[in-house]
Amino acid sequence: MSQLPPWARRPIADEADRLLADAPRSEREQFIPLRHQTLFGLLLYRPELSPSDRRLFRELLRQLRAQVAAELEPIALRLSAAYAPFDPDDDTCSVEDFSEAELRLLRRELFESVLELLRRGNYRQLSRVEIEQSLEIATEWGLYLHIDFSVFDRLEVFARGNVLGSQSRRQWFPPFRKVEVSVPIYQRLVVMFSLRHNRGLNAAVDTNAVYLKLFKNIPTADVDMLLPSSRIRLTLLDHGRIFLPTISGVVVTIVKIVKGAVFAALTGSLWGLIGFFVFVFGTIGYGLRSFFGYLHTKDKYQLHLTRNLYYQNLDNNAGVFHRLVDDAREQELREAMLAYYVLWKLAPPEGFSREELDEAAERLLRELLEMDVDFEVDDAVEKLRRFGLLQELPNGKFTVIVPEGLSAKVYRPSNWAGQWGGGQ
């Protein structure tokens, strides 16, 4: 990766997050894993830019930021207003009284608006099949989960950053030895749902609310554990280990009681009766030991889940909107900036076609990131067109427009540092 100027660097407090940020991707994604300031810093100091070009590029970034903010601010305000009737954490008084039909319509519009925002941030929607596949994979403790989908009025799950992380696990042989295994992980996971009345729900749950949860670094096999209706499911082996010894112990007990009573009555042997009860209760104890061992494993799983989600939960409900809007803003800026730069400095005088722009942008990202990104060329072209920065030539190819007045701007290093938090 190219050397960044100091102001474009970002310290990463969590070493695990840093490792996952650099982890290999299990599939090509449209998400560009760079802050727009970092991408700008990488492009700004490339050799094809002259000092005057750098001044132009700085002013261009300022204009792009203003235009993207102008597009997203109404969306953020509309989402905030649309979420107010469904916010379970709202502590303000409502003066509006909606009917059930109006609430259903507002809830549907809210879901669609959030899904559009997630797509702009390059989140990928997980299908019902992908969620159900996680149910067939045991957790680290060999436990399987069950989800009651009937409790959901609507459920949407979105993910981004499908990378290969690693986890330590104990293996059977050699015993107690820990090994590192590769685990597919979602760097970001958004769960959005509303619930319907159900006997299995906690009485404190508001079925009129819409819940949003944002998590980080969630193994793909553990998506199911984040849903409110998930519970531990016993396999046939678990049932056999717990109930067969207990049932057999009860049967043996009944038979032995009859035999023991007859034997004791005929022989008067107290030791034979004691031995018989030791055998019977030992059999029953084995079944109880298996059952309580299962409960202990279940408690360990719940404790691990609580501890992990304490650090993996990034935000809830209305707070998720702020992060999603910021994610969308970052991605919009990255795509627009990258497409503009490629057409401005890397395209020939006759311009680039859509396919050529796509290939050049992905090639530049591989050079900068050493990572294969699926550049969202159609979205980038449309953004530049909306912002008045794109020109389509008679040959059907594209070039960019340099807005008037950019070259007249003179930036002093101190002003640049004050505006963007860094220097030249």
Structure description:
The chain has 424 residues and is an alpha+beta fold. 51% of the residues lie in helices and 16% in strands. The strands form three sheets. The protein has a five-stranded antiparallel sheet. The chain has a two-stranded antiparallel ribbon with strand order 2-6. A hairpin with a 7-residue loop joins strand 3 and strand 4. The longest helix has 43 residues, at 270-312. The chain is elongated, with a radius of gyration of 30 Å. The protein starts with 14 loop residues before the first helix and ends with a helix.
Number of strands: 9
Physical arrangement of strands within the biggest beta sheet:
1-3-4-5-7
Anisotropy-based shape:
elongated
Characterize the largest beta sheet: strand count, sense, and whether it forms a barrel: 5 strands, antiparallel
The first-to-last residue Cα distance is 19 Å
Task: Provide the structure class.
Answer: alpha+beta
Helix-strand string: HHHHEHEEEEEHHEHHHEEH
Strand content: 15-25%
Please give the domain count: 3
**Low-confidence sequence ranges:** 11-16, 407-424
Provide the helix percentage.
Answer: 40-55%
Q: What is the gyration radius calculated from CA atoms?
A: 30 Å
What's the average pLDDT?
76
Number of helices: 11
